[in-house]
Amino acid sequence: MEATNPTARPQRPTLQDSLRSNSFLHDHQQYKPSVPISSIGNVLETSLESGVGSLSLNPISPDPEKVTDSGITHSLFNHHANTLPTGTPQVVATIFYKSSDPIHPHLHPDSSPNAGAGVRLPSPTVPVGSAPTVDIEKIPREPPAPEPEPLDHIYGPFVSQLCLTNFLQILESLPTPYQRMNTSHRCLDQHEHPRVVEVTFSPPPNPDYLTFADLRKHESIWRFEREWNVEVVLQRESVFRRHKRLVVFDMDSTLIQNEVIDEIAKFIGVEKEVSEITERAMNGELDFSASLRERVGLLKGVPADVFEKLKSIITISPGARELCKALKALGCKLAVLSGGFQPLAEWLAGELGIDYAFANHLEVDSASQTLTGKLVPTYPIVDASQKRKLLKSIAAENNIPIAQTAAVGDGANDLLMLHAAGLGVAWRAKSMVQLEAPTRLNGESMVDILHLLGLSKEDVRELIADVA
């Protein structure tokens, strides 16, 4: 018998070479079973046949060459029992990245090599649409805390995958009691770095716990919009969402970028007085009819041909021509319902191919051919209630269900028609109007409104293309 060396160190136990790879990740990955395991009894029978204690009992055979999905779904719910009944309501969320309106227009000096010494973040501001005014000095409370670091600055100036994932997580957390959702999405402008993404989910939250109106203004969605610098428009999915037959527009600061009465006031040097009244009226601080009469009174003596002179300085809003052309190609009836004045409303209708034009009529002195400072009494004032009445009467005249109508405006006198229409959009509206309107958009081009109908960028291009 050989003598044992008392100084020899015992060898450390090691795994067999056949079970050890050169990668920690490979050693700890989950691999697809070569034979499906139906029950624990199958495993025990295999173990007894091959001998207890053998290292070859692992039913999962490693394959260091290729890592594959195990096919195991980790969930508290039955993954295969998530089919929804036919006819389950759906909601469509259209997410727009606000590329023209960054939350922080200047990067923090610590994260921007181009920032000079002493450069600071902008002062805290009130987000548009979150309060009746965006002037911090006019808010009777403590100034708001600085905005959080926008996540689009980190993950990209578009609707990123993480942005979409975060939105889906928020949706899952909203329904009460809890219910699993089916969701799908598609990019409406481009697949790489999309600016507009449409998300369809069902079922919607239980209305007994969260109404659709409250869902549209839910705090979690508002926070999501602020963090990712996006706007979310929620609509109930239906054939009428996608197929509108009547679309009505406000004129001033909607289809055109001007306030016509303010432009007229420039001719006689009362622009400041008229502009202040206009701003208060559009924010809902003054009765529209009373404020209109007050402003019109200041125009007494203005030459009646002032509207012809104004046509050269009127600026049609970006995308308005393309929007109207696409809607006409789809067979929609269009109308402009304006709190402005009839001569320019009719001119604009001719420019954009609009079918109806309704606005206020100014009284003209036939002897001097100047404005009298009064409205023609035989025509009703086109105020909030009249706009809603016109929307319904035009729809009835053309046998169009109200669900197949859409309204677009920016002022407080547009709110009634925005709520009455099947789709009401506050376009680049006053802050108070954005708070009260069913939906709001603040994009660069009015073409964005077409995306709310489910139209892609390619669809829009085809609709506005000139037919040879």
Automatic annotation (TrEMBL):
One of its GO terms (cellular component) is cytoplasm. Residues 1-29 are annotated as: Disordered. Keywords: Amino-acid biosynthesis, Hydrolase, Magnesium, Metal-binding, Serine biosynthesis. InterPro entries: HAD-like_SerB, HAD-like_sf, HAD_sf, PSP. The keyword Amino-acid biosynthesis applies. Residues 1-24 have a biased composition (Polar residues). One of its GO terms (biological process) is L-serine biosynthetic process. Its cofactor is Mg(2+). Its EC number is 3.1.3.3. It is an enzyme of class 3 (hydrolase). This is phosphoserine phosphatase. It comes from Aspergillus coremiiformis.
